[in-house]
């Protein structure tokens, strides 16, 4: 059978989620078993990915839009390729832990090199349990003589592929490819829900959006999560395109439904807050059961498997991190339990009645549409009506106060700026996109309340829920571009999708309205409307990115400096960092990348230094002291220090009340002193 443009695009845009989920499904158990090695991952992972990418796309049905041309397909692929090329060219080299990207990078390096968690302290190779030493650092928690890295395992399991293929640089250029695949998946979702011809517009707006470019240049987890959640919507759409009864024999739609549920659930391996995003999927499954749809059971089974793996990823391999998040995670778990319980109870209570026929309530469609618009208006007025305060962290309060002082703002360290979250979206995709999306979601919800647009039900439930809950409480340090991470997984794609849908609806409306009028001006009205709306969406997005932080690379030179540092350290070295500030930033780099036992001495006293150095030498190892300056090292050891790590580079700024522009400077220095055995004491 000839592969039509629509079906080709449908298959291609489903591949990223299929491939990523197949890899996670195989490699996460390997990591849990302590066997995440290149050989075993290749033996089990590559066949799984190849089989999934070969078999599952064949089950995707022919799109309803069967006369789509090839030009939208070519444009989408061109946008994706150019996006990947640009982000690879501008990829960051964030290896020194200051914020989250380097934390993910260090996580990746450890599991790629060692294949297991937790990280041993290796204190027996330094000075045992000497009270002067500590082993905890930024994004690394010391618990019971071992160290647990922060965050979830999903993204590092994927960036490990790049590390195995190309070392540190290979790891750093993996995420740009994942970010490009996220653009591709959104194009596929748009093609299904709006039309193939509108897919390039959605792909282009997301591709030029600053947060999408920014997170794709770092080793963040957001691009992977974006692929899985949007990909789950793509596969769910395909699975539900054909009606199937509960008692019907399982076929391709059931397999696609199971795959969609699994993809949704596996997203929890990448980010624990995906639990919140999955709550509408639980409610939707209840509706599917009430509708007697055969896809409900396999989708529920796939979701359950993925969620159980995600919970083990959190509580089995990242428990100290979840412990740190307990103030927000415990309420989320309780809410999740309530949602599951209510769904079960409601489904059982309504089982004989079937789906509530809400479309018979005449006033409901208009009420829902008006409520959606009023909610957006409320979010826009929120800074005036409900300014938000309270980070719950003294460190965050101090940082926000420092940025406020730099920007000339009133110094209120407890200010969260969450009430400006809708304005953040406007910064990055423009006022036009925000307005079009508002009208779009109002119309979509109105049609759903009328019993129409059934294919929009799950996307509308999931995206609307995530947009509202995220904008109400982004739960992130509010300086940009860092805060934009919270928007890029689903919030910004949701605004783009609804805005493109409204643009398509308005274009068709104008075409119908002008059809009786045969004049050339009237005939051109739909094209003018489509072009004008597209410019209103793309123009501000491009301007924000062009004026922002896209013209430089962050932390350039860190890879070369790291390689030089590792080469300068003796193979039998035991490293003690004698500066508390530097220890938090550089200990994981020395331990995870250079592979040497590393500890920190937060308050170096000569007596403690002599004792620890002596204990290292007693173990027939070479003592190495490291610090950010040469003079303290020389005073402590009496030896001439050397500086193998030196980086002077650009880094991203921090802004609170405007989109980020320009760059700040970053300087990183590591001085080391190798202490010979005969110089234990002075």
TrEMBL record:
Keywords for the protein's UniProt record, in alphabetical order: Membrane, Transmembrane, Transmembrane helix
Domain of life: Bacteria
Keyword Transmembrane on entry: yes
Transmembrane parts of this sequence: 12-33, 39-57, 69-90, 161-187, 194-214, 220-240, 252-269, 275-291, 298-317, 329-351, 363-381, 425-445, 457-476, 488-511, 523-543
Protein name per the record: Glycosyltransferase RgtA/B/C/D-like domain-containing protein
Protein source organism: Nocardiopsis coralli
